[in-house]
């Protein structure tokens, strides 16, 4: 048997790799579909579902033993696809509930909450996932799994988890009939002290008009 054949067998995707790649690709495609804005009223619950499913894949990667790629140095995957349009479409779709407050590491004592955007989070997650997918589609399965595991622990896992909490909170406010208070100065573009922060929007009204009614949770 030739060396090329042996290498091909060695790097052939197993069930675990196929399942992870399927979940990754499904998330990338689904977020792009949501960002098109064809069904804006369902954007929040649909994103909640998709991020939840992605984090199942992330949990499997996190619980898996350390994945070691076949090559010592990561092969070049070429230029990273631009996600600015995706980010902007999501921001427009989610305005004015895009901005939320998050603590990055719950184990750091007295961590101060910071303002984040769901649109930024999802675009960043898609960037990480696409990078691994480029390796997977090139047949570098171990490299793809290593990247998805490493970036899950270092970036897209915490980022997706934060976005999930925000999305879950939005849906919970609707289902529990507790409209959001006005986002008093919560703005990612404001300075560190928040002195120049502006009122983002009357988010509670938007929740009732654009999210609750289409879900059938309230009378339109």
Plain-language structure description:
The chain is mostly helical and 220 residues long. 57% of the residues lie in helices and 4% in strands. It contains seven helices and two strands, in the order ααααββααα. Strands 1-2 form a two-stranded antiparallel sheet. Helix 2 crosses helix 5. The longest helix is centred in the C-terminal third of the chain and has 35 residues.
Q: What's the end-to-end separation, in Å?
A: 68 Å
Bin the helical content: 55-70%
Order of helical and strand elements: HHHHEEHHH
Poorly predicted regions: 1-10, 190-208, 214-220
Kindly state the number of beta strands.
2
Percentage beta strand:
under 5%
InterPro entries: DUF5063, DUF5063_sf
Pfam families: DUF5063 (PF16702)
Protein name: DUF5063 domain-containing protein
Q: Could you provide a short overview of the structure?
A:
The protein has 220 residues and is mostly helical. 57% of the residues lie in helices and 4% in strands. The chain is built from seven helices and two strands, in the order ααααββααα.
